[in-house]
Amino acid sequence: MTLPPLNALRAFESAGRHQSFLLASKELHVSSASISRFVKMMEADLGKALFIRHSNGVNLTEFGEKYLLAIQPPLQNIASATDRFRQENAKSTLKIVSIPAVAETWLVSRLWSFQQQHKDIQINLVVDDQLVVNDKLISLHPHEATVVLNYSDGQQEGAESYAMPKDRLTLVCNQEVANTLKKPSDIYQYPLLVDRDWQGDWQAWFNEAGLLTDVLTNEKNHSENNDKHNYKNYIEFERYSMVLHATLAGSGVAIGHTSLLESYLNTGALVAPFDITATADKQFYALIAKGSQLNSVQAFIEWFLD
Is residue 101 a contact partner of residue 245, using CB atoms and an 8 Å limit? Predict the structure, then answer.
């Protein structure tokens, strides 16, 4: 098999398609002089002129037109086959970009079940704090096997979103602490465990529990029980997983996201001592590129929704 110089062949195809050395140079990111040299190389290899050069540019010769039509289908086949194999390779790897709360409290303990079902998919899990702090958007492309797990309104241009079960906010603690709580105001005998990025969770639950007014009143009146009802008696953590571990250890009470903590509540590791819940202003979503047909991405979404 004797092939012409492939770089020269590629340069000729582009120049012939555009009928311009300049446009070919822009498409291939080389100089016009390089395109001209490659074309001359092809002409020397074939023993025929491919272009007629004139002051206003170039035009294909009759021989050049026939040769261009002959080489374009196999070049397109090579390009299509290469794209298919690239996509097949992408299907075997799945990148999951997740906020820490979802990755550390929900996803990590469940990934084994996904991999048991899809042993041919290699998982690359990336935890991104900035998804929480700045509501940063991750660029999603249909040819890339990427899933984003975030806490948002589910809206992102060029993305399809799939929601976890509707999230609610409820007070949680371990059983030992729960045994001492008879009414919502009893929580003030313990530190409030706060996620730095989700401080508003506490305010939402306070409103539902009718405690916010009491707290502010106690601070204003400086009653004898002020220390017991001091809203500032809290411990702040950088990550929700830290809040979770502190709660499990009995270090205080926390606001639980029901979407993330369902398994902890079902097993009794955590307890919701009061039937009081608040509506979260956002929800947990899995986001993928709109129109993505990659097997690994679709397999994850099916598992996620199940």
Answer: no
User: Contact 255/198 with Cβ under 8 angstroms?
Assistant: yes
pTM of the model: 0.64
What integer pLDDT is reported at residue 212 of this predicted model?
Answer: 63
pLDDT in tens, 251-306: 999 999 999 999 999 999 999 999 999 998 899 999 999 999 899 999 999 999 98
Sign of CA dihedral 219, 224, 230, 233: positive
Residues of the chain with pLDDT under 70: 87-91, 133, 212-232
DSSP letters, 142-186, are TTS-EEEEEEE-S--TTEEEEEPSPPEEEEEB-HHHHTT-SSGGG
Q: Supply the pLDDT for residue 89.
A: 64
Which CATH number describes the domain made up of 92-164+284-305? 3.40.190.10
Helices and strands (H, E) in the chain, number of each type: 13, 12
Residue corresponding to tokens 């993305």 = 159
Three-state SS string across 195-220, please?
EHHHCHHHHHHHHHHCCHHHHHHHHH
For the chain, how big is the Rg over CA atoms in Å? 31
> Quick check: 35 and 24 in contact, CB under 8 A?
yes
Q: What is the pLDDT of residue 194?
A: 94
Report the candidate in 140, 146, 155, 112 with the shortest Cα–Cα distance to residue 126. Answer: 146
pLDDT score of 226: 41
Closest CA to 234 of 260, 258, 255, 204: 255
The pair of structure tokens assigned to 121 is: 């998919």
**Angle separating helix axes 21-28 and 6-18, nearest 10 degrees:** 120
Report the CATH number of the 6-85 domain: 1.10.10.10
Q: Where are the domains of the chain?
A: 6-85, 92-164+284-305, 168-281
The confidence score (pLDDT) of residue 91 equals: 54
Residue positions counted in the chain: 306
Q: What's the CATH fold of domain 168-281? A: D-Maltodextrin-Binding Protein; domain 2 (3.40.190)
